[in-house]
Amino acid sequence: MIDHMILKEDLEKAKTYSSLFSSSFDDFYLGLSLDTFDMEMKVAPKLSAISTSQGIKMLPVHQTSYLTKEDKEVYEALIQIDNEKNEMPKDANYALLSKEEIKELFADYAFIFNHLTSFVNSVSYTFEDPKFQMPVYKIEEGTTNEYLRSLATMGLKKRLKKLPNANVKTYQERLLYELSVIHKMGFDNYFLIVYDFVKYAKTHDILVGPGRGSSAGSLVAYCLGITDVDPITYDLLFERFLNPERISMPDIDMDFPDNKRDEVLQYVRNKYGDKHIISIVTFGTFALRSSIRDIARVMKIDPMRVTGIIKRVTDEKLDSTDYEMMRLVRVAKAIEGLPRHTGTHAAGMILAEQDLSQYIPLQKGLYDFYQSQLEAKDLESLGLLKIDFLGIRNLAVIDDVIKAIHRLGEPFILADLTLDDEKTYKLLESADTSGIFQLESSGMRASLRKLKPNTFEDIVAILALYRPGPMDNINEYIERRNGKAFSYVHPNLEGILKQTYGIIVYQEQIMRIAHEFAGYTLAEADLLRRGISKKDKNILDSERKRFIEKCKIKNYSESIAEEIYDYIVKFADYGFNRSHSVAYSLVAYQMAYLKANYFPIFMTVLLSSVTGNEGVTSEYINEIRKQQIPILPPDINKSTDQYIYDQKSIYLPLLAIKSLGKIAVNKIMEERKKGEFKDYQNFKLRMKKDLNDKNLEMLIHSGALDSFKLNHKTMNYHKQIDDAGYEQYITDFKLMVTDDYAFAEKAQFEKDALGFNIVYHPINAFQDVIKKYKLKTLSVFEKELEANVLAFIRKVKVIKTKAGKEMAFVELDDGSTQMEATLFSETYEKYASLLTNDVQIFKIRVNDYKNQKTFLIEQIKKMD
After folding, report:
1. Are 760 and 743 in contact (CB under 8 A)?
2. Could you report the per-residue pLDDT of 743-755, keeping only the tens digit for each?
3. Which CATH class is domain 630-754?
4. According to CATH, where is 1.10.150 located in the chain?
5. What is the dihedral of CA 775, 780, 781, 784, to 10 degrees?
6. Fewer CB atoms < 10 Å away: N or C end of the chain?
7. The pTM is what?
């Protein structure tokens, strides 16, 4: 600071500030830098003079921005990426210097090394082992342990009232065991803190997810209302969540509706203070491709070359004689992986007893929250408590559907939902699961069709199986479930694997196998599971020896022990957390139930949740049409910012109209409170100040003004007259009615306004063709493997195969269904000229490979 004042030739200001700092602080030193010529020749002599005249000691300082002199080019390029004017002084050396180099650099000021020695000797410090910085939950009397026990015991009584056939002793013993472990590990406060903000949410009409992750395996969490998963009913293990043999922070992640998450966070901030709950920074890093582009810009390399260079790097075909390219790639690779920009952790928050500004560096983050300058892994290594507050769109959908049901006068209670609803399982069997949490991907739907789930356990299993690795077991699982004979590696596995037909699906099953065969405690079994899942040979060998010895103690032969150990090692990577799968299966079931039993309401809410996403919106609209429920364009006198179901039809929201943002929609809704818009002229007169020409044009083409009984061309014509200033001369507007636009024009205008077609779908103009050629709809492929269909080409993506030939992926739409179909090279070459945005006849065949359906276009016939 003072040296820069001198550099700017403001010597008096430098003297003033050095004197001020010297009198204000007990230990104040002047830092002498000789990193550049200007610092050495212009600053050093004057700074030394101030030091002498004011009696302030100097210390040698050196800016270190990179390790070696060879890194200078990389550093200079890095600082120029954001601003090419950020140039280093040509003589600057910001490399890490050795002791000898420092002494040589400051040879003319050797006396300051005496100051450095005294300075170093005056500094004392200690490194403490990180300890859990657990916040304290304040209670009026008693201990937190007593309060937690009281709450959990009362919670168990409430839960057991709904479980008349439960073994009370089993629940009581499990509760006491968990409470003792929680207390011994020092986590009483943690559970009370989570209980407190979950209680706030539930008493303020905020839906809370049934659970997430391994915390669903805790009976204490269930009794406190933190989760809604009964770990005893679902055979879940507490040790998978909190292991007394492995001291680490508990991990209770909480799900809230995405539109209510901030409300919960605000409560926590108000309770603990804004520097006691903070968001967590994330760092976006340089990827190689973007690094090459950035460095190329800094080096002023022709952009036309860059794409070719990136391809050469990707293909590892660099030309070592091309100096410019090699230099570019060397610098780009040097910055690859370095932080480029900051972001905010999507869910994680740090909660602490102390003022975090006194413990870690903070900065301002989103929504007025303070934010750490350290990443999550560094914060957790310091013993700080991280809690994930997740905003889940699907919970918002469930919440809004329930509220809509209540508005109809039905006393629907989500917690009373039974898991044996016939309509729900029929929906799951038919895989009509678009919009349903975890179940809407095409591969999952193909698996559901084969599985035909009819119990809740079927849902739990398929969610655990449908992921990389265990996915290979889906067909075997389904075949065994449907009657295929199988045997167990050992008869004693039956009690553990019967529910999953002899296949290890869950991590908890691995733990139970270790417990049964080798006598591990469940806590030890969890450590075993974690160890062998790393596939480290040393760990595998040491654990094998221990496992076999413990099996022998339980009278199993060495060969059986070897076989069982190999079996669990094989599945260690594939096993999924059953607690998590059960909790998420509950959310999936709840959504499936609502869709099966309240379809129009569910789909209306679902559509509102994806407003702005044209592809997904179009898919949901097509599904609604299949159920013969009319879906109508926005209506200027009915529509709001959400989709509306009026017990007959579903209306699009005004917010679905392009160019019409929230402000304009709110203005329309506010004006409408004064009375409906009587006609087109009345609407224009009342909204003239709040809507621009583009807004009005999109309103017309979307169909939102159709209730005024004027065709689109007439309304547009009148808009143009108004724009020209002639409207005052028109006395009888009805005399100006003109012929409307052609169907094709209206279809394009509607798509421009909404992103998809509602009334004027291109297919609607070809109903006679469909009848003449007996063409099918795209939905036929849910049951048939080959058919001729009429469809509109929405989008074409052409790629090159490894052989260098072109093939294409084509997005088809028949007005009720959309799908992506493939043209392989030979077929593409034959029909490429027909792949325009038009309606054509397609011959399509279904290919089913590894539970993934693909649709192959075999022929295309041009429409005349």
Report:
1. yes
2. 989 999 999 999 8
3. mainly alpha
4. 630-754
5. -90
6. C
7. 0.85
